[in-house]
Every structure is written in structure tokens, then in C-alpha cells.
Amino acid sequence: NTLFDIWIKYKPRLPEGYYNERLVKVGDTLAQIKEYKLALQCYERYLQQFISVNLDDVMFDVQHFKSAFFPNGVRDKNVAITFHALQARNVCIYQMVCSRDRNLQNGESLQTCLNALTSLQLTMQVALPQENLCWLIYNGTIHIYTISRHLMVMGHSAKVLEYLLWASICMESSIPLLSVHYLTWRATLYTAVSQCYFDCQAGIHGEVFARRGLIKIDELKQLENISSSLEHTETEKIFREATLKMSVMIFKRAVYESRRKSNGFRRESKANPRKAVNLSWPRTTTERLLVAMFDGAAAQFLAILEALSDRSRNLLPPHPPVPDEVQIRDVTSELFSAGLEILSGNRLKKRKQLVRSLNFQFILVGNIFVITAGEKGVSGDAAVEFVKLAFSYEEWNVFYSAFEFVDNFLQAQDDPTWKKAEIELKLLTLMQPIVFPGKFERSFSVSDGGNSKEGSTHQGSLKTQTIRSECCSGSLKPGDPFRDLMILATTALSYVSTFEQNVHPDKEILVDVVMCLWQKCKTELQQIQKSGSHCLEYIHKHQAYQWVHILWITNAIIEKSNIADTNVMFAEITLCLAAILENVADS
Q1: pLDDT under 70 in the chain at which residues?
Q2: Same domain, yes or no, for 173 and 47?
Q3: Is 189 a member of any domain?
Q4: pTM, entire model
């Protein structure tokens, strides 16, 4: 209130243009320090000079929009600041939604985000014909991508597809933005559109759009070869990155469809995994396609990750139905086998297991990769994602072997980012015997200098057994039905209690841990709850103390990790604990 009292006081004393310019700049400063509510008031106070009604009422009709905010036309000297205020207003609205409902559980939150996208689209539509406003178009594509990416992660790809398409076409329609300087960003938008199609189960359209992107990139490359203002090595790097992004999206469908098309022919005999580890690369049809489409292990590993990634597939069951085609299942296994071979270092002449290379780094953003240039090495982020995918697909041989490679790398790092990844993978190893009981037999690993490492165990690798023994309470013996549950519960609680916030596991992992514990304990706990005033007698008779203890720990995990608002089921957990404690008090 003090801030706006000052504005009201000085408005009649300052030139109108200067006042408006300062007002918007103050909004920008507030937005930079994440005071979005105050910043929004600055932008709206500026925009209210054009219109007295609700600003949202004019955001859905282009003619009404132009007449309201640009009565003197879009060539007026003040249009740039007006466009900027309009865009910044939408960004603030989106950020305010994120602060109160990050997971968009409220339908109104989702609609507000979509309204912001529509408003950004309208603003760009009016500004697009003005070449001198190309910076507004560029900024608009960034805002659209940011909001759309969030909605894609939340499962709303179908709703944002049109906006990402619009952003891509705007980049192509603005002559200044067609330069090589903006190609990396344009390729990122193309990738997002293609990913949207895949999320909507329209893979053929995703591949077609990626091929269209390759054509656009090639057209620009031909023009650049005629007249280049940049260093040749720099332009080559930019074109290589953009081409790689498109090729990865093409491979995502082609690796499966090529096998489907050959369905009528004799099926290639599947190599025995024990023998395959000693064969020379490329060993399978999938690996031959990788070699044909991509140069270098890093690019091939990226293609493998994207081909395996499926936004509808969670870490834990239930998963989407597995395709009936044997060929598709073979491709999935071959992709994991190829990824493990690269990860192990056997694919590279120099046996570097993991490199978080400054020359080549993957940054994973909701299964969309932003890639910088380089030739060799697999980033730590990509390797961690590969292990999680192996867990999701229940490829246990790959999971065990990849976990050993990645965990060795993570333990050697000091950065909190890697500590967080290490914690997440350890939680997966602890959830495994609970979610997938009896599925731990391991019979082969990867080649090591031509010699395959073989072993067989019903409890995973030696490293995963070590993790369980380190986390195990001394009072719990092997074979105790509570052992695995108690190890998981106490370990997760220790992670969210003793580490800094930036080292806590992702909320998605913690939600999976809590749901895993609850599903395993729910039936027994509800029986305890129903026993009413005989609660203590029931607990003693059925030796059910451990169930209540696990419930207590589970509730503590929810409280300390601030995930209570991510799933309505967590309210049931808290209520169950409260009811049992009340019954115990009354007993």
C-alpha cells in the first residue's frame, strides 16, 4: 500500500510518459525478485489507462484488443512498452498460479494458465507484422514454451499443442528471427511440438513435424553457406545441435515402426544376452539404426533415452498396457542393452564411464532435452534418467548394472545436485523388493574387456544389498515381513529430515514412496482402526505394533517433505493415524 500511495501522490507531478515508463520498470524489478502480486498491480495500473473494464474481457477478440490498447495504431511510439506490460502481466498471473497450485489440481488454475497462453498468442498476433517488434515475438515464444512445458509435465499436452505450434510458426514468420543466432531456440520449439504429438499418441505427426523441422534447418544452412557472418565452426556447431534434436524425435518413432513394417518378414533371431555382451558393436538391428543416424555415443545415448521416454509411464505401476507385438518388446530390450553398453564405456575407445562434460551436457526438462554441442561422453543427468527408465520398465538386469556405474559416479561428486540423484536412486533400490517381490534374479551384466560379468542373486546386486544392510535396523532380521517396509520408511524419513531442502528427493519420488508404504500397510491398519476401543488388544494379539510405527513414519515423511497437497490420499493417511491414536487413548 505504501508503494502505491507514493505512485498516487506523484502521478500528477510527473510527465505522463515518464510516470508510465517508471511504473512498468518498477513492475519488472518486482517480478525479478519474485514479488509477482505487486508486479501484477504495476502492469495492470499501467494498462488501466487504456481500458476501465476487466482486462481479461478484451483478450479474446483481436479487433477489440487492438482498438482498446492501440487506439493510435501499432506504430505509435509507446506500443513497445504496452506490449511488454501485456506480456509481463500474463507471466505474473502464471507465476501466481504456480505459487498456490503448482500441480494444477484445481481446474480453475489450469484454465487460468490456458487464458494466459491465449492472451500471449493474441499479443504476438498483433505485434508480428511489425519487424521492429521481433524481440517481443521472441520473448513471447519463451513465455509460451515455459507455460506449455509445465502443462505438458502435468499431462495437458493436447491443450498446449496449438500454442507451441503458434510459437514455432511465429519464429519462422519473423525475418529477423530466421537467422542462425535463433536456430537453437527454434529447434527447441520444434522438439516441443513433436513431443506434444507423441504425448497425444500421434507419433506419426510428431515424426512428420520433426522431418519438417529438418527441412527448415537445411534450407537455412544452404542460405548460410552462401553468405555467413559467423565463424564457420560456430555455425557448424549450431546446425549440428539443431539437426540432432530433430533426428532424435524422428528416431523416437522410426526405431519402433521400422520393426513393425518388417513384421511380415522372417523375424531376426534374438541374440542370447549372455552371448550378446561379447559381440562387437553394432550387435542388433536397433544398434545399427543408431549408428546410421547418429555420430558419437552421447548422441546415441540421447536418442535411446528419448525413444524409451513415455510421459504416461510412471516409475511405479500401474503402467500403460505393454504392446502385444513381440517386435516392439524386442526393440525396448535392445534399446536398454545399447544404452547399458554405452554407459559401461565399452562403446567408447577411451573407457570413460561417465563424464559430466563441459563440452556436452544434457539438461532434462520434462523429457524435452536442451542440448549443447560436443562429441563424446554421457552426462550424469542422462545416466540417472536411464537407471530410472530401467526401473520403470522392470528391466532388472539393466537396472542392476547401470545402477552400479551411476552410483560410483555420484558418490565421487560433491555437488548437492548429484547427492540428490544418489538419494533418489537409493530409494528406488529400497522400493524394488516391496513393489516387485520375487523379481530380483540376475543372470548377466555387461562385458568388461571381452569378459562378461555373470552372477545370480534373488536380492539384486551386491551394491543394492549393501545399501539395504546399511539402512537396516539391527532389530529387523532377514525374512521379517516388516523389514523392507521399515528400511524404506526410516531411510526416506532420514533423507527429508537431515538434508538441506535442495538435496531432498523430488516430490514425485517421495509421493511414490509414501503411496508404496500406504498400499502395503493399508489393509492391516484399517483393521486396527476398526477395532475401536479394543485397539490395544488387537495390536498386541496380532503383533501389529510395526504397522502403526510405519504409519507414524509415513505421516512424518508427508509433513517434513511438504507433499501433503499433492495427493488427496495423504489426508486418508493422516486421518487413519489420528483415529488409531484416539482409539489407543480410549483403550
Answers
A1: 1, 228-231, 261-279, 319-324, 346-377, 438-481, 587
A2: yes
A3: no
A4: 0.84
